[in-house]
Amino acid sequence: MENLIKDIDILPAEEAQACDFKTTAEESTGKSKKLYIESYGCQMNFSDSEIVASIMKENGFDTTSDFEKADVIFLNTCSIRDKAEQTVRKRLSQFNTVKKQRPEMTIGVLGCMAERLKDKLLEEEKIVDVVVGPDAYRDLPNLVSQAEDGNKGVNTFLSREETYADIAPVRLNSNGVTAFISIMRGCDNMCSFCVVPFTRGRERSRDPHSIVREARELFDKGYREVTLLGQNVDSYKWSPEENNKARLNKKEEEVSEVVNFANLLEMVARVDHRLRVRFSTSHPKDITDEVLYTMKRYDNICKYIHLPVQSGNSRVLELMNRTYDREWYLNRVRAIREILGESCGISSDMIAGFCTETEEEHQDTLSMMDLVRYDFSYMFYYSERPGTLAAKKYTDDIPLDIKKRRLAEIIAKQNKLSLERNQLDVGTTQLILIEGTSKRSEEEYKGRTSANKMVIIPKGDYTKGDYVLVKITDCTAATLFGEIIEINPAIA
Length: 492
Ligand code: SAH
Ligand code: SF4
Ligand code: F3S
Known about the structure:
The protein is α/β, with parallel strands linked by helices. Helices cover 34% and strands 21% of the residues.
């Protein structure tokens, strides 16, 4: 159990959503300067790194996976929990040695930690040359060139309009089959534990045509799955009056109607029936029946919903300022089951040991898990973040050992539920999209079901990007195993 707790924040990349992990990126087109970029935090941050790489590419930089050869090092950071920030600080101290050998190298801190700490970061971390927040990436080439002349720079301006809609992301570490598309930025909710509204600014939605165009271009390049990203996708809203003024490409067809998330999902689903559509994250207060019915109408919209509950107790949910209670959440789950059936995947995020949480209230989280029967969860213990509502209003009064014990109970419950949910799939036939070679063995492929479950199959006369019908033969709590029934079946 001890090991589990230590590793809690480190989840496998392909399951990343709400976790703190890093990855590096490489793309070479023969440009003279080299950028090394390392990303932490949520998928939106990884998506932002692809925008950063694109902006830097326009300015003469290729990405490299070898930081020792880089002219510029960027860390795209996360502030969600204290541990995420500590990881970045450790990494910066490791870069000290390289910087000593090559003082001309520029080191930049980007993302949420940059936004939270602003110029304090320059004082605290002497090796940092530029500090750039999530809405200021267009200024990166300018700040880097100033840094090359010896002038350190900070830009943490938060915008009400920036969506980088016109920038074609450079796909980093891509498997060539699945890609992420940012559909909105920022967050207008004020969950009391959460730093995101402070680091990402106000919520704004991206022009739907630019989203559909990006999906179509990905499909034409051979991609077969897109995940639409936002902190709260259900509140996506594009209205011509509010948004046309911010549009960057006036030549495009004008949008005359208000586009909500259900409309956008439909627009992307219609790009091609062979393009799978996923989305994340849904907020329980905003997910509508209209979205659920749209999911039902299109076979290529995957039947999987990430619906973070955070706590199963109404009093704690109120303190968290989540704006729903236990009954509301259970009603939404009931709607999902009624409209999309038992096989629709549901996953969650849970926080153990929030301020003043009692043992009974913690039990409510466990009973909520039993009622919903989550397929998967990201589970954390509460980490107080400076400046948040909870930090201002409540005492972080649950001792660490109790937080860890409660979290361990949540994890044990989830492992049991994941196994039970996976066992229900054994014997069924599932359509999976092959994403590449399995990590476990060169002889096997991996792909996911509509409900987002990873399936391992033996390699055969099919390849990455193929759809295959698979009979599920076995499972663990994390993975399904299957054998092929049919390759590239006619799909609806
Ligand atoms: N927008 C998403 C969540 C983004 S943050 C949503 O509303 O669901 C990802 C997850 O990190 C959250 O769902 C929450 O479970 C966790 N988290 C956020 N702040 C935290 C904190 N201060 N301590 C522990 N976990 C936190
Ligand atoms: Fe944070 Fe809440 Fe916004 Fe999610 S919805 S990003 S938890 S404030
Ligand atoms: Fe972290 Fe920022 Fe995402 S705080 S979780 S990188 S929005």
